[in-house]
Q: What sequence folds into this?
């Protein structure tokens, strides 16, 4: 009897399962990629200078496998990344160290906060392009200009996050642990470190995303190798498929790094705070790079 | 009734003096903050970097004054601000329907999920150079860049706003057999509009930076264009004067105009106080 009830839906078989697939999240995501490809293709049809998907992926194939572009220029893929990543990591590392130092100094003292908070606000507001231009004028072309552009663009954001973290420890908790004579170790372990690590990770994530943009800009203007330089190389050669191809590579790099590593770290570090957030709120929290430096 | 009026008297005066004290404190904070900024700058330019590489505040101040007095300020600020405005209008125009779909249907939420997620981490240089490649030197470049940068923030906030719509109001409208368009117009839009605006405000800082960058790359007027021409003249004071004028202006707009507008839009929800 119960079997008879089940079979009709099962006998719809392929049609029903296709319908379910069309309504599934997976298909929605696939559809969004197809939609983007279609938009891209339309823009390419409308504007001749702009290369379509087929051209760009053809270019990327040659660039990644190291073939020759029209017999002259050799494809390069790992080379530019190998040149950029050390500059990028060094810039982000310096910005973390100096950002934490500045943040602790400002967060720990009322006077320092009053004196330096507006300076920090201006630094946060300065677009990365200014640092790219200034460092080029100060230091000429070369690695130094790129690393310093990266570090100067990213470090204010780290500092701001560290300050927030230090100020976010609830006063009630501090008082209560004082009243109940909670040991210094347990206070550090269960109150101070969890409060600051979340913000520190958020700061690190900002530093990475902002630093990546800054390193590309820096290389666009003052380097002779690297990812930013390579995209400019194709741009200057009027080979826009090369430029668009590299845009895909450098967006792909940062998106993978962000989604696979940074967001997970951040979720983990903030899990004590965000446990009750809905999916929408969490998403809002994660795209909130609202103060990012372009 | 009488008890509330009796309470209002002393509390009102207390508020006034509290507000007054707060204002004094805010002004003092501003003076100390600006003083600190000028101090750090002077120290850097005197002892660390050197006056040639980082001109002292006074010199930049003079250049700023020249820019403002010569009328170049108005001439280049107006187009930049207009483009920002059009860009935000575009963002609202696209972000509203996208956010509506995301907030009401699971399928559309999954559809836009990746697009919205990725948008926040796209380096600004992408928008700038892409606009130049597709549109050439054009006023549309900055407008479209601003629209694309802010759209995801508007969409996600609209979706969040729909989550927070008072369900009972919707149920009541159903009970009284209001039609769908009328529910959208009288219940959904008023409760979601402030969230859409909050999206604009969140993306504000990012949007104007991307706009600057787009102007640096492909524009023949505007603040970004001026920054580029000063760079090409190797004029550090000129570049700093333009960018600092612009930052000061933007911080003022954000602090006073946007924050107030947002408070105004959220005024029917006292608990929201963002």
A:
């Amino acid at each position: 009897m119960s079997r008879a009830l089940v079979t009709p839906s099962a006998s719809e078989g392929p049609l029903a399962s296709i319908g379910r697939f069309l309504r599934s999240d997976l298909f929605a995501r696939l559809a969004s990629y197809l939609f983007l490809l279609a938009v891209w293709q339309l823009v390419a049809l409308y504007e001749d200078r702009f290369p379509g998907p087929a051209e760009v992926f053809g270019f990327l194939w040659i660039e990644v496998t190291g073939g020759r572009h029209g017999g002259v220029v050799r494809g390069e893929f790992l080379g530019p990344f190998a040149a950029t990543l050390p500059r990028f990591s060094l810039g982000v590392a310096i910005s973390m160290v100096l950002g934490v130092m500045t943040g602790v100094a400002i967060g720990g003292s009322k006077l320092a906060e009053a004196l330096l908070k507006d300076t920090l606000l201006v630094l946060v507001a300065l677009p990365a392009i200014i640092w790219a231009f200034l460092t080029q004028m100060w230091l000429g072309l070369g690695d130094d200009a790129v690393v310093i552009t990266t570090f100067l663009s990213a470090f204010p954001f780290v500092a701001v996050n560290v300050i927030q973290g230090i100020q976010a420890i609830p006063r009630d908790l501090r008082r209560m642990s004082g009243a109940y004579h909670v040991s210094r170790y347990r206070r550090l372990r269960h109150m101070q470190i969890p409060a600051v690590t979340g913000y520190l990770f958020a700061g690190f994530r900002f530093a990475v995303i902002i630093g990546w943009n800054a390193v590309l800009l820096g290389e666009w203007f003052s380097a002779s190798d690297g990812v930013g330089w390579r995209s400019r190389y194709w741009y200057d050669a009027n080979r826009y498929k090369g430029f668009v191809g590299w845009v895909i590579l450098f967006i792909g790099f940062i998106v993978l790094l962000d989604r696979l590593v940074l967001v997970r770290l951040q979720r983990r570090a903030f899990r004590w705070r965000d446990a009750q957030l809905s999916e929408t709120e969490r998403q809002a929290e994660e795209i909130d790079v609202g103060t990012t430096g372009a | 009734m009488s008890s509330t009026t009796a309470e209002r008297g002393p509390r009102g005066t207390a508020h006034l003096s509290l507000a007054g004290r707060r204002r004094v404190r805010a002004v003092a904070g501003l003076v100390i903050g600006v003083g600190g900024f000028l101090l750090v700058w002077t120290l850097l330019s005197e002892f660390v970097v050197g006056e040639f590489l980082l001109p002292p505040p006074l010199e930049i101040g003079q250049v700023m004054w020249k820019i403002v007095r010569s009328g170049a300020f108005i001439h280049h600020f107006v187009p930049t601000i207009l483009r920002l405005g059009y860009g935000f209008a575009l963002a609202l125009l696209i972000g509203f329907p996208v956010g509506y779909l995301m907030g009401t249907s699971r399928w559309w939420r999954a559809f836009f999920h990746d697009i919205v997620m990725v948008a926040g981490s796209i380096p600004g240089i992408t928008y700038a150079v892409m606009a130049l490649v597709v549109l050439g030197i054009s006023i549309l470049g900055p407008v479209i860049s601003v629209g694309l940068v802010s759209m995801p923030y508007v969409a996600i906030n609209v979706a969040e706003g729909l989550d927070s719509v008072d369900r009972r109001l919707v149920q009541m409208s159903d009970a009284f057999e209001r039609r769908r368009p009328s529910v959208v117009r009288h219940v959904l839009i008023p409760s979601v509009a402030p969230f859409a605006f909050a999206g604009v405000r969140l993306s504000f800082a990012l949007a104007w930076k991307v706009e600057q960058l787009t102007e640096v790359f492909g524009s023949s007027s505007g603040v970004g264009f001026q920054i580029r021409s000063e760079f090409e003249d190797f004029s550090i004071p000129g570049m700093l004067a333009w960018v600092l004028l612009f930052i000061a202006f933007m911080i003022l707009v954000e602090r006073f105009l946007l924050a107030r507008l947002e408070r105004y839009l959220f005024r029917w929800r006292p608990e929201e106080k963002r």
